[in-house]
Amino acid sequence: MDRSKNENFNIEPYYNGLSDHDAQMLTLYTPSHNSFKPRLARTGRKYDDSYITEFKMKLSYENWENVFDSTSDYDIIVIFNNFLNMHLRIFYSSFPLHKFLVRSKSKVWFTKGILISCRHKKYLYLLCKMSKNTVLKNFYKKYCKVLTSTIQLAKKLH
Fold first, then answer.
1. Which of 63, 58, 49 is nearest to 90 (CA)?
2. Per the CB 3.0–4.6 Å rule, which of 30, 61, 94, 158 could disulfide with 55?
């Protein structure tokens, strides 16, 4: 029996009752689905300096006389559409779509009690900022320590 690939399994006989040949049932134990974080795919555009430089360069090399080549010289709709088509063509070629993997932002450990405590902490902070009371400031510091340890414990338990 080779256990080098997976140590979490169980083998037991399986009696099917249909013939005199019995089978063996192999049960593999895998980590639960909650142990990994699902990744979501999102498409978007990158706006790095290199892409912006390429966009500006393509705009500067473009012959804009084609924008004004219309059947009627003063048809503003045709002129605008020509400009927009040319601009979007350059934009889409300079800033192509990319797929990004986004981690799930769900924080199951962030309970309603922790949310209320965080709001109370912000309220205490505003009070301490406006007041010169040292007792209130000491209470705020103790409250922050307790809240921090509560959050760490909630994350650890999750």
1. 58
2. 94
Q: What is the pLDDT of residues 58-69, one digit of tens each?
A: 999 988 887 776
Strands 97-103 and 39-45: antiparallel
Q: Over the chain, what is the mean pLDDT?
A: 82
- 18 has a pLDDT exceeding 70: no
DSSP per-residue letters across the chain: ---SS-S-EEEEEE--SSSS--EEEEEE----GGGS--EEEEEEE---HHHHHHHHHHHHHS-GGGTT--SSTT-HHHHHHHHHHHHHHHHHHHS-EEEEEEE----TT--HHHHHHHHHHHHHHHHHHH---HHHHHHHHHHHHHHHHHHHHHHHH-
